[in-house]
Amino acid sequence: MPFAAASELAHPNGAENHWKVMMVDDDSQVHQVTKLALRRFRFQGRRLSFLSAYSAQAAIELLQTHPDTALIFLDIVMETSDAGFQVIEQVRDRMANRALQIVVRTGQPGEAPEELVVLKYGINDYQTKVELTQQKLFTTLVTGLRAFQYLTELQGSLAAAKQRCRELEQVMEQLRP
Predict the structure, then answer these.
(1) Which of 26, 67, 93, 122 is the most buried (most CB within 10 A)?
(2) Helices marked H in the chain — which ranges?
(3) DSSP-based three-state secondary structure for 134
(4) Distance in angstroms (rounded) separating the CA atoms of residues 122 and 124
(5) Domain for residue 82, yes or no?
(6) Is residue 19 part of a domain?
């Protein structure tokens, strides 16, 4: 499988009415199985648009193109044993994106021990591929999308409040003798 970014929008028409979910894994079967398991998924009347990346670099490039991605299912061990951590650092540190929900989904938990990953990195959930049944995938996705929605709404409210404060400061400046 190539390591180039491969955008695979499940529903390209009207994508603004869809939740963008990125799968980052070097195993194409993981992408296929996830899409199959979630093909009928809806949350708040919206379907999913899938973005697929097969390497850390491809994921970073896709995130720059799709900053409105709501959730990432992220493998850690891909082209290197810590490739997934590079994506987390890009999202949390360089992009300063706290709303994007990051779900580590690993097939090699020994390479990325749960306790270490949860404490050290700004992830929102940790699942092993073996344990992530269709039902758990559904639950993980709903809770992640709900958190993303709350955080983006909060960010929007804060931005509006800051703008209002700036406007009030300008009015106060004009009223000063």
Answers:
(1) 26
(2) 28-37, 56-65, 83-89, 114-120, 134-175
(3) helix
(4) 7
(5) yes
(6) yes
Largest CA distance in the chain: 70
Contact between residue 102 and residue 72 where contact means Cβ atoms under 8 Å apart? yes
* Residue 1 located in a structural domain: no
pLDDT computed for residue 16 by the predictor = 66
Q: Which of 44, 41, 55, 47 is closest to 13 using CA atoms?
A: 47
Integer Rg of the chain from CA: 18
Give me the pLDDT at residue 172, please.
86
Strand, coil or helix: what is 93?
helix
Q: What is the pTM of this model?
A: 0.82
Kindly tell me if the per-residue pLDDT of 117 is higher than 90: no
| Residue range 138-156, pLDDT digits in tens | 999 999 999 999 999 998 8
Nearest to 142 by CA among 36, 88, 71: 71
CATH number at residue 164: 3.40.50.2300
Q: Rounded to the nearest 5 degrees, what angle is found at the Cα of 14, between the Cα atoms of 70 and 37?
A: 55
